[in-house]
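quick q for whoever's on today - can somebody do inverse folding on this one?? i tried earlier but teh output was garbage lol. tokens:
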């Protein structure tokens, strides 16, 4: 991989030199109130900034004014602002509306007049110092004190909190801040747990138009953790928030939490950027100053080369700087991906509709992205997409059956999950196809696609048993249960379109171990309309763009071979980093009685290293 290490001597701040700007990445570092408070101490900020900016280029800093009832005073804020502005670094403010992070991230009580006053004072204080500020993750409420219980009355917590926080945004933050500083822009950062927002009062329906911008938490950390965050979430969530406020999603935000190996940190940054984040924020200046720990070295050899990262950085004549901090992992990760980002157009993906304040088959879209189906979440049912994917969460739309029928009547396809179908039973879905997703389970390991050869997963998985009327609808992919078989992908005709029911394993992660022929057929049914498709195992994600470029990202621990399928007229693809060209092989479609069911395709064999990406153009 070609990388250029050039470091600029910024003579106006002495002889020290700093990482130069990236060509296609705008970077920011967030500073918590705890660290901002220290910035006035003699020498503290100079030392931290000097170490940081040798190892990663930073365009902007967010200076937090409040967290856990710690309010940074005027003198310190102005000192810190000037420090960064003097160095050509943009500044913005930040607020974390927590009372005590140590106590389950205790939030303010928005039914309590003292708390409300405090929330407003913090917004006003911040607006006095900054023309832009961001609300970090916690502009929600988890309070269930007696005041809240009384104020809630007969409403659900969700309904109560959604309206409570919409009003709090206007009355306590936006209006007071803009009264103090009419030029101030206020950005709300939404975290990664979008599926559950409504229960805590994050209002994705009414808040995006109220705020000047949104920001996206793309920290996915360790997927085994209690947040169930699959790596691909970093992409879906940026695209989802962008679709909530087109043009208004200002960036993605990654921290170092849950790291078991260093490549995981790099992957989070890369995926944020593959979603075309306009800016990427590193959380935070304290974490970036943590030492690099050797136990984060992975067993495999991907494109993230631990030793290369640790190489001394040249900082001028005969001088070098030995990187020791987490900021170098960020800088190195950016250098690895910057060139590729220059080639990528606008992301293209299968649309999955999620009505506002809905929940169901929690976070399933991210698991689907992990099996090579490019996917993005949209808050309205799209009317001009050849395929729409609906998970259980879409069952919250009372008009969903009519919307599905209209899509099918346009001659397009709808793919629904077994969870969606089950939630819709008795609600009119039977007017499209009469099948039943039962409460019975099958424990399966073997699968068959059409009339092909059976293939097996590594271990057994539990799936719901679906019953249907023979000859009314058809199995496209089946699970074989020794003495019995069950639909995995089921198809029914309706009007001018096709309606598919996709059986999702009880444990979503089992999608990753479906054998390649099953995954290939699923990809074709759901994402076959995109101009790039892949064949191969799970845990390889595909990112597609509107300018004949695409990226493959593997999350596997060993090298993987993937087949990339493109139009038959495209005879070669080029790896944009390695400048390597790969020739395609034409695959003729299967013909039966002089009829073909499909198009011929050009197939390219591509190897991807563990936990690595490759970007191509054609
Ligand atoms: Zn309360």
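ok took a stab at it. sequence:
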């Amino acid at each position: 991989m070609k990388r250029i290490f050039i470091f600029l001597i910024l003579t106006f701040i002495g002889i020290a030199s700093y990482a130069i700007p990236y060509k296609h990445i705008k970077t920011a570092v967030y500073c918590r109130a705890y660290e901002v408070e220290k910035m006035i101490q003699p020498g503290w900020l100079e030392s931290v900034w000097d170490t940081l900016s040798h190892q990663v280029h930073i365009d902007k800093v967010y200076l937090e004014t409040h967290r856990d009832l710690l309010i940074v005073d005027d003198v310190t804020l102005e000192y810190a602002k000037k420090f960064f502005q003097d160095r050509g670094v943009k500044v913005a403010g930040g607020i974390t509306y927590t009372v005590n992070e140590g106590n389950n991230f205790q939030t303010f009580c928005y039914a309590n007049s003292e708390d409300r006053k405090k929330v407003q004072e913090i917004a006003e204080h911040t607006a006095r110092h900054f023309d832009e500020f961001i609300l970090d993750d916690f502009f929600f409420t988890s309070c269930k004190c007696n005041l809240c219980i009384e104020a809630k009355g007969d409403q659900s917590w969700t309904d109560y909190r959604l309206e409570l926080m919409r009003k709090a945004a206007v009355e306590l933050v936006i209006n007071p801040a803009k009264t103090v500083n009419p030029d101030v822009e206020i950005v709300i950062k939404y975290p990664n747990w979008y599926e559950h927002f409504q229960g805590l009062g994050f209002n994705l329906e009414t808040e995006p138009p109220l705020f000047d911008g949104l920001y996206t938490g793309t920290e996915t950390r360790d997927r085994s953790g209690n947040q169930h965050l699959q790596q691909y979430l970093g992409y879906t969530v940026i695209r989802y928030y962008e679709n909530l406020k087109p043009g208004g999603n200002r960036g993605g935000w990654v921290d170092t939490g849950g790291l078991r190996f260093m490549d995981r940190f790099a992957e989070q940054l890369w995926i944020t950027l593959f979603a075309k984040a306009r800016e990427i924020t590193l959380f935070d200046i304290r974490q970036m100053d943590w030492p690099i720990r050797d136990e984060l070295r992975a067993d495999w050899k991907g494109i993230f080369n631990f030793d290369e990262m640790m190489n001394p950085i040249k900082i001028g004549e005969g001088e070098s700087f030995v990187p020791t901090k987490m900021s170098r992992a960020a800088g190195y990760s950016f250098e690895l991906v910057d060139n590729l980002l220059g080639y990528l157009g606008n992301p293209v993906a299968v649309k999955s509709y999620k009505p506002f304040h809905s929940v169901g088959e929690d976070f399933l879209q991210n698991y689907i992205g992990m099996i090579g189906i490019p996917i993005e979440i949209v808050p309205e049912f799209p009317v001009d997409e050849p395929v729409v994917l609906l998970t259980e969460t879409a069952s919250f739309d009372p008009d969903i059956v009519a919307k599905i029928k209209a899509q099918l009547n346009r001659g397009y396809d709808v793919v629904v999950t077994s969870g969606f179908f089950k939630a819709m039973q008795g609600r009119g879905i039977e007017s499209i196809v009469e099948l039943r997703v039962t409460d019975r389970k099958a424990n399966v390991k073997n699968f068959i696609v059409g009339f092909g050869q059976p293939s097996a997963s590594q271990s057994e998985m539990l799936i719901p048993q679906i019953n249907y009327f023979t000859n009314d609808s058809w199995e496209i992919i089946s699970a074989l249960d020794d003495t019995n078989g069950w639909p995995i992908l089921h198809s029914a005709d309706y009007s001018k379109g096709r309606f598919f029911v996709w059986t999702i394993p009880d444990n979503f992660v089992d999608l990753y171990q479906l054998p390649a022929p099953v995954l290939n057929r699923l990809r074709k049914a759901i994402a076959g309309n995109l101009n790039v498709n892949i064949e191969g195992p799970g845990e390889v994600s595909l990112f597609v763009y509107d300018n004949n470029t695409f990226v493959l990202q593997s999350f596997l621990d060993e090298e993987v071979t993937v087949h990339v399928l493109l139009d038959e007229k495209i005879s070669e693809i080029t790896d944009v980093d390695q400048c390597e060209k790969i020739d395609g092989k034409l695959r003729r479609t299967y013909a039966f009685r002089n009829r073909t069911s499909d198009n011929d395709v050009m197939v390219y064999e591509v190897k991807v290293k563990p936990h690595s990406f490759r970007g191509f153009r054609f």
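fwiw The two ends are 19 Å apart (CA to CA). also The pocket of zinc ion is lined by residues 109, 111-112, 143, 145, 147-148 (CB under 6 Å). so keep that in mind when u check it
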